[in-house]
């Protein structure tokens, strides 16, 4: 099947039948989610920083952003979550191969490694089609076990 089929019509087409892609999948049994880490990729750095220059605060399209090392690699900086931020081209050029202090610049927010659970929550739709979710949400609301005082 192709990603296009899922996005276009919410169906997966096979040779012999057409399968509707569910809006909600209910796990009937699970213990704990295994610990995961957020991969250190350009896409995830842009996502962590919300496509926003961490120096001037402008929100831009991905292709209008660069990645910048807060402490330049040539000055001992590392390729880590804590040292790489989104920056617009003009802020990146202004900072150049200097430290923040030398360039007279400040970060809007100190960069940090994202927490996997928080990061994954942000990828869920903010406005799903509630009509499709209603049955699931009703069941979850009415059937969840309440904590009983002892």
Automatic annotation (TrEMBL):
Q: Which GO terms describe its biological process?
A: defense response to virus
Transmembrane regions: none
Which CDD domains does the record associate with it? HNHc (cd00085)
Q: GO terms for molecular function, please? A: DNA binding; endonuclease activity; hydrolase activity; metal ion binding; RNA binding
Name the coiled-coil region(s): none
**Which superkingdom, per the lineage?**
Bacteria
Tagged with keyword DNA-binding: yes
Task: Identify the residues that the record assigns to the HNH Cas9-type domain, covering every copy.
Answer: 1-150
Per its UniProt record, what PANTHER family does this chain match? OS07G0170200 PROTEIN, SLL1193 PROTEIN
Q: How does it assemble?
A: Monomer. Binds crRNA and tracrRNA.
What is the protein name stated in its UniProt record? HNH endonuclease
Q: What is the species of this protein?
A: Aerophobetes bacterium
